[in-house]
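A favour between colleagues. Tell me how you read the following sequence-structure pair.

===
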Amino acid sequence: MLKVGVLGAGHLGKIHLRLLNQSEKYELIGFFDADIINGKQVAAEFGYAYFDHLNDLIDAVDVVDIVTPTLSHFDCAKKAMEKGKHVFIEKPITNTLDEAENLLALEEKYGVKGQVGHVERFNPAFMAVRESIKEPMFIETHRLAEFNPRGTDVPVVLDLMIHDIDAILSVVKSKVVGINASGVSVLSQSPDIANARLEFENGCVANLTASRISLKNMRKSRFFQKDAYISVDFLEKKVEVVKMKDAPEVPGDFDMILQNAEGVKKQIYFENPDILENNAILDELESFAEAIQKNNTPQVTLKQGTEALKVALQIIDAFENKTVLG
């Protein structure tokens, strides 16, 4: 088992603590929180060991799980990596692109592994269709959330949209060459609603919408590709897979046949992939443990987290500049 320590005992940090404590791949050594009062309250309530000093916890573990505010991600990860510790970092990887690129250099210098907490990669609905998404040419995403003051210190792009940015980059194997975006601040100092259009070198276009002042929650993505339409409901953990193939010469009574203007006939059929129930946060943490133990590449690398951050920051820049070329 890998010895692990958690930095940050806020809302998400408590979830990480609980899951790591029950994991068979980790031994939870304890946690650190800069808020001493909160740290001692969490220790008293749940029985986890509270460390008064950050460096003491880092010294005592093999893996550091960073669930602190984004502004402190870089400093925490840097301290851990310089001591030869592996790091799991909640999304976004860092506050700035320079910080993220510095972590990539530190990862290589000290021979440690890092993973970024883009948890939607481990959503069972997305995992069920991930291999079916091949060369999509149009993607549309909607990530809407009811207002919650937690997280409003950052633009909605870094708070919500970055989940969809990472998922899209994981299936579109092409470079972003154009970005057009708009963002509106309604309740917060930073944008609460954002829309972005990403254009890829291979011709794929992605249209992303995110809001944190919606009346209902929604997390849906739709992927359109040659002879297929794939819909993923990340919230309800459901999928729709509609595919087309050449129609048989003699269609059955219940076959759904379409004919285009050129007279080409296609048969529509549906696939129902199995969706396996899981705890996505536990799975991402345990996948990192396996990558360390087997010396494999983590499923969401620091480089991938850096690319997602880069696109997110370009979208934010485009709020004012309107168009950004990658």
About this structure: Residues 302-321 form the longest helix (20 residues). The chain has a mean pLDDT of 93.
